[in-house]
Amino acid sequence: MTVAFATCSLLPDGSDDVQFLTAALAELGVAAEPVIWDADVDWDRYDLVVIRSTWDYTDRRDEFTAWAESLPRVLNPAAIVRWNTDKRYLRDLAEAGVPVVPTLWDPDDIPSGWPEYVIKPAVSIGAGDTARWGPGEEDAARAHLRSLRDAGRTVMVQPYLSAVDTAGETALIFCDGEYSHAGRKARILTAGAGVEGPVRDDATRGRVTASTATEAELELAARALAAVPGGEDLLYARVDMIPGPDGAPLIIELELTEPNLYLQHGPGSAERFAKAILAQG
After folding, report:
1. What Å distances lie between residue 107 and 101, 102, 120, 155, 195, CA to CA?
2. Crossing angle of helices 16-27 and 269-280, rounded to 10°
3. What global pTM score does this model have?
4. Which of 25, 82, 106, 180 is the most exposed place for a label (fewest CB within 10 A)?
5. What is the C-alpha to C-alpha distance for residues 183 and 148, in angstroms, rounded to an integer?
6. Which residues have C-beta within 8 Å of that of residue 82, sequence separation ≥ 6?
7. 231 φ, ψ (degrees, to nearest 5)
8. 98 within 8 A of 223, measured Cβ to Cβ
9. What are the helix (H) ranges across 151-264?
10. One digit per residue, pLDDT tens: the chain, 281 residues?
């Protein structure tokens, strides 16, 4: 069996996850290697392509999803990739009754009832073109909103939840439908930074630490995954959530395409994923 871990030209050797998984698969006698997704490659030579650190696709989403659909065997499945690479999937989850962070889609103006809010495009990763806005920043926030709409991008506006600054985001990692481990990520966006500088430049920015999922978080993750069309074929899933105003968790993102799986924070997780890859191959 041969496995390709799809990555991007910015990370030709793959992410840390790829390194961990390659080593774990080698222990099982499976050959695996990182391969740049948009390179001139004979993908038929691989028994399975596992999408991992393809973190440059957002400006070429149609090309990326067409590539996934062209592969003979890919995980997660290409239909999942198409659905999940546009955050409008959050509307599908909300319509299925899954608690998600409240979202305004393509609003004509900034919200009037939220003290602080986040504006971002529906196709993005890593806080790209994302900013947090608050009182006194209305003109800049409107300019941000207009710039995204003028570029033909679907715009999302969400309230900035204060729990980001205290509890942070919790990410639950699932392997072949089973809960594996969890990580907690410190806040990324800072107040008043604007779209040109949406992230903190201190040592705690986006830091991930090991965490333990609560029963409420596990229940919410199960509800979200049950609402995924074709979700029974998922190799991996990362369910990102944050406490809402009442303390109950809300889905902020459901990462099914190229998430960091935080394998370094889950003892034995690389081996679990390697066995799942072998079983699905």
Report:
1. 16, 13, 12, 8, 18
2. 70
3. 0.92
4. 106
5. 31
6. 65, 68, 69
7. -70, -10
8. yes
9. 163-166, 215-226
10. 999 999 999 999 999 999 999 999 999 999 999 999 999 999 999 999 999 999 999 999 999 999 999 999 999 999 999 999 999 999 999 999 999 999 999 999 999 989 999 999 999 998 889 999 999 999 999 999 999 999 999 999 999 998 888 888 999 999 999 999 999 987 766 555 554 444 444 555 568 999 999 999 999 999 999 999 999 989 999 999 999 999 999 999 999 999 999 999 999 999 999 999 999 87
Number of neighbours of residue 64 by Cβ within 10 angstroms: 24
The one-letter amino acid code at 43 reads: W
> How many residues make up the chain in this entry?
281
In the chain the beta strands, taken as DSSP E runs, fall at: 2-7, 31-36, 48-53, 74-75, 104-105, 117-121, 131-133, 155-159, 169-175, 178-185, 208-211, 236-243, 249-255
Of 71, 45, 100, 50, nearest to 258 (Cα)? 50
